[in-house]
Amino acid sequence: MPQNEYMERFTKQHGRRFDYEERKRKREAREAHHASDKAQNLRGLRAKQYAESRRKQKIQMKKTLRAHEERNVKSNAPAQDSSTPIPNYLTDRSNPSNAKALSSAIKNKRNEKAAKFSVPLPKVRGISEEEMFKVVKTGKKTAKKSWKRMITKPTFVGPDFTRRPVKYERFIRPMGLRYKKANVTHPELGVTVQLPIISVKKNPQNPMYTQLGVLTKGTIVEFNVSELGLVTAGGKVVWGRWGQITNNPENDGCVNAVLLV
Amino acid sequence: MATVVPPPSKRQKTAAAAITREQQQPQAKPQGDVRLHFVDPATGRSIGPPIVVPLARANTRNLNILVNSLQGQEDANDRVRYRFVLQADPDAPTGSDQALPTDSDLADIIGKQAAAGAEATVTLQPIPEAVFRVKAVSRCSAAISGHGQAILAIQFSPVDSSRMVSGSGDNHARIWDCETGTPLATLKGHTGWVGACSYSPEGDIIATGSQDKTVRLWESKKGKPVGHPMTGHTRNVMALSWEPYHLQAPGRPRLASASKDMTVRIWDTTSQRADIVLSGHKACVSCVKWGGTGFIYTASHDRTVRVWNASDGTLAHNLAQHAHWVNHLALSTDLVLRTAYHDHTGKVPPTPEAKLAKAKQRFTDAATIAGEVVEKLVTASDDCTIFLWDPSSTKPTKPLARLAGHQKQVNHVSFSPDGLYIASAGFDNHVKLWAARDGKFISTLRGHVAAVYQCCFSADSRLLVSASKDTTCKVWDVRSGKLKEDLPGHKDEVYALDWSADGERVGSGGKDKQVRIWRH
């Protein structure tokens, strides 16, 4: 590989050929003919490679053209800064996109009876007790009777939970599978925030799972939405909001949910 | 098994008994006499000779009767209600006197003052209160749909509370009949959000300013457009302000419009041309107010407040103290300038001369402090402070006071119509009350759970209403600083708010596209 700029150095010292510009112009003018010749006559792998490189060049060219066009457009007034009307005193302020949508459309929807009970995930896969519980057989007496169960799915355990004495503890909820927070999406705004779980409201599989706080796909969970700054019509801060779990937490290692509005 | 609490020991019993005995002891009545001297705050002259009054009976009610009789208003029907303020002693260090005492602690303060300087006279300023009383609004008399987008501005007619105009994001303004709660007219023509609307002081013309860079005029009876759209601004129109009635050339009212294009244009509404363009601000002009002494005040995002001569458009003063955007400004004479000759009696003078005289008289009455016409100015800013200015003083560019206390940006300020209080609404969920005399902090009105956008005094200065992002309006008692009424009902943020000049109604509008009218 050349280590120095010897060609530039030579041109600086001795100049170029007298017909350099002319030859360059002609070469560039012939460029299109060469390209067309290649496109017509190349065969096989060469043709494929050539077509691919041309395609990429054309994409690049179109992008540049578009960029130039955008630059040439005269933007006299900036487009309306936001689509929803706001009073003059709120314009130019970087309004934090707080998760807030209490549009009348949503309210009307909630008034309909059918919509009241509709949830984003209406059907769930059934989970049998064999899949949910592992029989604990350690220890002398439990091994004999085998009435102790370990829950194999992620769970939510409330902050005030204390374990019962080992002798009476029928269900074990492993520490490694406990979740306190979930990634909650506000469907209207498309905002996702991590919110603390307050409680498990309904596990569609089995009322017992609801009691145990099992988090499976389709479970209805109450979240602490005080961070979002939602306000009721009476001017009170909304604290708890329900949501439905949309993923399989046991597969993903996180809880994703969507708010029910 | 429930645990039973053991009975209290003898020591506990005696201690509790001692506390109750102490509480039952009546407050010792202040003894002795005090020499009171009353001084008229407007003229600075004394009302009668100093009078010796027993301290025990020096309450507001008795002093009211005393001052009324000193001024020859013996008949109970002629009496004017007064509030008493201790005259600030020029020698005393600032902060020693109570800003505005309430009824209960008046005797206390007088007693303290008398005790401090034995044999000295205590000087009191009786401040007349409004002769009429506005009742707190408590119910929603009408929730009117009609606008297709959020409501951005609302103003009541200066004539009475039966007409109201609202500007909206659906490019229309609408006139409402508040008596029946029905829409009266739709002012169609703008092609952008209508962010500002304003009645002329006479109440016959409505001006609307919009995002489409134009200002339009409408006749207020039927909502017919007057003339053509007034073009000239190159960005949104932010605020509008009419020339005060007593300064107008007969039949040629002028209008000032502030815009995002850094200029303020003064339009002659008859010829519909821009007379003067006030340029000098280096950023968006956020607010404009036309003062009654021939000044135009503008607040801008370039951190300055400028005072212009309205006659020729020259810059009089540049008030540069704020450290961030100046959001809003208010004048001590705002309500009087807005209503001109329309007062609480509803009587309109018959002739133009009488109208002019009455408007002028009302302005001088409202603006006179210690015999001089003083128009105070208060500005709210994003630097979380408020400044109080007196542009007519000898040092106009020096603020009278810097009102610090808000934790976040201050969005809106308003002066009480009697010129005694300033209310400020901030994004820190609080409304704060300040004494307009010296800018001292009085109280914080807590109750909103989100940013407060607007606040508005009632015409008698006894009540304040505030509108907030938390979808409610709240009515506050200014004197006690307590929540008087909570007005829930809006389904979303409340952007605009106005209390009619006759005190009958409050109008509010916001993101839920409904105009609501609140009444007692």
Automatic annotation (TrEMBL), chain A:
Which stretches does UniProt call biased (Basic and acidic residues)? 1-37
Which species is this UniProt entry from? Answer: Aulographum hederae CBS 113979
Subunit annotation:
Component of the pre-66S ribosomal particle.
Name by which UniProt lists this protein: Ribosome biogenesis protein NSA2 homolog
Q: Which UniProt keywords apply?
A: Nucleus, Ribonucleoprotein, Ribosome biogenesis, rRNA processing
Q: Name one Pfam family in it.
A: Ribosomal_S8e
Where is the sequence biased in composition, kind Polar residues? 74-98
Q: What is its main location?
A: nucleus
Question: Can you supply one Gene Ontology CC term for this chain's record?
Answer: nucleolus
TrEMBL record, chain B:
Which Pfam family is one of those matched by this entry? WD40
* Entry keyword Nucleus: yes
GO cellular component annotations of the record = nucleolus
Region annotation Disordered: where it falls in the sequence: 1-31
Print the keywords alphabetically: Nucleus, Repeat, WD repeat
The main location class comes to nucleus
Tell me if Flavoprotein is a UniProt keyword of this record: no
Please list the residue ranges covered by the WD repeats: 144-186, 187-228, 230-277, 278-318, 403-444, 445-486, 487-520
Q: Where in the cell is it found?
A: Nucleus, Nucleolus
GO process annotations (BP): ribosomal large subunit assembly
- Note the superkingdom of the native organism: Eukaryota
Q: Which PANTHER family match?
A: NOTCHLESS PROTEIN HOMOLOG 1, WD40 REPEAT PROTEIN
Please report which protein family the annotation says this sequence is part of.
Belongs to the NLE1/RSA4 family.
Name by which UniProt lists this protein: Ribosome assembly protein 4
